[in-house]
Prior knowledge:
By secondary structure, the protein is mostly beta strands. The protein has strands at residues 2-9, 47-57, 61-66, 72-78, 83-86, 91-93, 95-96, 102-103, 108-113, 126-131, 137-145, 150-158, 166-173, 182-187, 196-199, 203-205, 211-213, 223-226. The chain is globular and about 50 Å long.
Amino acid sequence: METRNILTYPYSDPNPIPIFADIPGRSYKYNIIYPYHSIQGYSVKGTMQEWELVKLENDYIQLWVMPANGGKVWGAIEKSTGKEFVYRNEVVKYRDVAVRGPWTMGGIEFNFGTYGHHPSTCAPVDYKMVENNDGSVSCIVGSYDLPGRTKWYVEIRLPKDKAYFETRAMWTNLSSLPQTYYNWMTASAVVADDLEFQYPGTAEIDLWRRIWPVSNKRGRKGCLMVQE
């Protein structure tokens, strides 16, 4: 564990009035967060705030986890060059994007819930450090999704002799009722003139669940997105 001072634009306390149903003319998100309360105030002035980070390191890479900010991977670097391969945002600036409200960009964000950036994405979550028998180490982060009465966790595992880390998600239904499972992760990378992102598949889905075909223009296995 280490402590860092990071420029932070905080958010307000939750609105004390709960929202039980959708409000005409407002965002889709307000009908799916109960028993959480919405958060509607965001600072325009940043101040230095002390954050506790979990640091995982081997001979090849370093990465940091933020348990107080949704358990996200804050960033990761390759040690021989000092270059980031997961974008480490040195500013924590909350804005009204997530289902409950607060969201901030950078790192790798974990999402569990019924739609969008889930209620715990910028809230403190539980965490535990584990030393595995094969010499790897894991930071396990997790919390509850109260609307669905489910429990989630993500294992962030760093092998002892590899220049990468792995994530493994687990989601458990604690109720006797069927639940909707909607899990995704969003990662940030440093933008450069020669940035390319390759992934398998021939289609993509947008925020409104529309499916769009993606052509493979360069004849490679999978799709290719080029940063212009």
